[in-house]
Specification:
mainly alpha
Length: 716
Amino acid sequence: MATPLSSKTFLVLAAAIAVAGVLAYHNAPGNGSTNFDDYWQVTRNPLVTEPSFHNGVRAVSGPYHGVYLPAKLLSYMADYAVCRRLGLDPVLGVHLTNVILHIANSILVALICILVVLDLAGDRIDPAGAFLIGLFAGVLFVLHPVHVESVAWLSSRKDVLSFFFMALAFLAFRGVVMRGTLVRGVMCVVLFILALASKNTVLCFPLIAAAYWVLVSRRGGRRAGFVLAALIIVAAVDVVAGATLISAAGYGAKPTGGSWAIHYLTVIKTFPLYMRLLLFPVGLNAIYRIPTASGLSDPGVWWGLVMLTANICVVVFVRVKTARFIVLWYLIALLPVLQLVPMAVPAFAADRYAYIASVPFALAPALILWKVREALLKRGSTVVASALVAAAVIYAGALGVGTWSRNRVWRSSKTLWQDVLSKNPTSRIALVNLGEVHFEEGDYQRARRHYTKAITLDPFFTIARYNLALTCERVGDEAVAKTLYKQVLVMPSSLTARYARRYRGLAACKVSAIYYDRREYVRARKYAADALAYLGKAPEPTQRYRQADEALTQSRELADGLIEAGDALAKSAPARAERLYVHAGEAAIEYSAPHTKLGRLYLAARRWQDAYEELTTAFLLGARGADFEYDFGVAALESGRYDRAARRFARVLAADPARRKAKVKLAVAEAHLGKQEKALKALEEILGADPGNREAREIYDARKASLENGKRDGDE
């Protein structure tokens, strides 16, 4: 059984790792927030920025943005509460806590490595050697540049916090295995729950614990088995609950390439990237471009299969327990982040996904260094052994320099996305986010160029189209902005359902505002209703709808008052009535009633063209009904638009077949269209039913005489 560290030895270990961590991350607390999720998760999240008992209960009682991670939210709230108490910048406090957690994690990694080496290597490694291995592993872990994303990014608190609880849970589980105490078992399960409440990528922990238990020959008996079973049950419950939340929130995504086979081939293609990032951490990026696998013939897929097979062979054929555990930890830790279940975000690969998986890449070099050094010393090659140690120290120093340099990339949104685009110029996310930076700076031309390029790369990238519309609106190009907003509403989206609905709701709200400013309240209310349908009872759409509805009611009430006054003067003072109707139309520009009134006034004055124009406007604004259609038809007939008149009168008769005036007018329109015989037949039917109809008689006689004259002219 492993010999525990003394307090003095532990302090030396912790101090060495802490000094290394401070040197590497001393510039991280001075970084700001980024527009890479920091705003909605931290700096503009009311649950975080307004710490209180009530908000703490809200953080624990339900999901936030479709994800249930209460421990992460509570840790942010604690940072804000402490910083405000001390008069410090809360962003500085969040960064500082991330660094402290990472250093604590590195110390825990060192402890885990020491204990695992002692447990699995037996008498081949003494406690002093295990201490040196753990120390170097902890230093490598704290200095590794791949961890900068998890530490320097505010929103990645969940990585360092979840691993902190997971590492403690592993130590508690080891206590159960080695000592069989129930208290440690309960602690292990509780710590695992806290880890899941920080980030669900720690779902790998029960499998890592199981691998360790098997390799130490299942020590701890039934009690360890019961604890492991409890861990598996907790993980299963979290998987079911998480899947339910993801489905309800609309975060799920289709497999890459539209095929599960292609999706999993892309997963295999991604696998070697993590090994490269952990062995040779150069070219680190916030957004990696992983081309979709083209099939089994894809060289990247073959390379991934080779690397995966090599790791599996180590587990199956190598009898060194420490080596098998190192590989098992790595493989198991990658399972939750390899997109085995497609998600909208995150993508296939990211530096932060390697946080848990990097533990073996801290332990393995330390173990190999110690083994080689011991072999060289036994052969008397002291100089070579010293050179090897010096090379290891230089390697660790290089990692530290890389970490310090990488921290500078995360200084601001601008530095971050400029770095991403320098390595991946086709990253649509980077283009949009850098465009947002330029937008906030007031550099609208650059913002517009970035959004346009993102749309060129992906025409259905709704975020880019919406942001481009915002930019156009800001520079006064309202017509283009409105068109882009409407495209967001109707075009397919490459986003998941949740995000597509959100941006469509925002776009509908913007269109509503544009129409409201134009006093087109009917359209404003319609788009505000669409925004409510997409976003639910969100404050802005609700306010937009209420404002548009109230303005519409007020404008129509004013218009109705003017119309009533106009009606009273229509016969005695038509000119004054006309002015009142015009003012009514100006008061409610989408109201059909003023235009209907004007049209009828012009009909009475035999101003046929004016009547037709006003009634056309009324029709476009929604005026309907048999009486309106009849008046519209008369205006069309008298202004020489016979085909349109015929259609109007036909509609009137479809609604009221006994309407004789409409039949007469239809006959006149058809006669003008050259349908003389049909018109005469219709007039004969009217006269047969109503012989005293003077209008029908006059038109009938005139049309019949015209038809007979035409026939005589033809005979001659």
